[in-house]
Amino acid sequence: MTDLYHHPLCPHSRFIRLVLGEMGIEPDLIEERVFERRRDFLVMNPAGTTPVMVEHEAGPIPGPGPISEYLDETRGLGLGDRRLLPDDPVGRVETRRLLDWFNAKFFAEVSGHLITEKVYKRFMTQDQGGGAPDMDAVRVARANIRYHLRYIGFLIRSRNWLAGDRLTYADLAAAAHLSSIDFLGDVPWAEDETAKTWYARVKSRPSFRTLLADRVPGIIPSPVYADLDF
């Protein structure tokens, strides 16, 4: 039995949901509003961030990095050529480099700002930091996403997938972050056609279906969000 504490638009949570989907694991999803600082959740993850995965034999596993490593160590070998962290050291380094790019750099420059300002603040009290979005932060994030899309396009022009010949954690992390802000309509897909084509490939995978069905009260997803032929 696998429980996943998440938020529907948290990009790190979405990454782990995609990983679990690729591995054929259907978790019980438990929505967590991290800004509420719920005591029982902080006991599981003192950092107070999502996602946290709980498997009864392992206990709480917090964060996208530890969860993805745990899943590779416990299920990776059984996936054969569908393993999401490559077998060879060079491939593993490149996959982990890109994981850090999207889960740290992209989050700090793009998705973290947009999700906080346009989603989380809607549900936060004034004491929690809620209120109107900081439009300066939104504008910076919208500008930053453009060079990230160009970088994705650059990688895909010389590779089949982001880290090499096979789908890896890198593709799922990048797609997870993009999907969160695509929900909000903030991805300028016309910026790079190669990046758009790559995203359409990932978006069409069965593991993506539950993400495309996500809804958040009071927020209407963009018209292209669930469209596989956008």
From TrEMBL:
Task: Drop me one GO molecular function for this one.
Answer: glutathione transferase activity
Record's keyword annotation contains DNA repair: no
GST C-terminal domain sequence ranges: 88-224
Q: Mind telling me which Pfam families this protein's record contains?
A: GST_C_3, GST_N_3
Name all GST N-terminal domain ranges.
1-79
Q: Which SUPFAM superfamilies match?
A: GST C-terminal domain-like, Thioredoxin-like
Q: Provide the alphabetized UniProt keywords.
A: Transferase
Please name the GO terms of the biological process aspect recorded for this protein, alphabetically.
glutathione metabolic process
Signal peptide range in chain numbering? none
Oligomeric state and interaction partners are given as: Homodimer.
Protein name (database record): Glutathione S-transferase family protein
Q: Which organism is it from?
A: Lichenibacterium ramalinae
Taxonomic placement: Bacteria, Pseudomonadati, Pseudomonadota, Alphaproteobacteria, Hyphomicrobiales
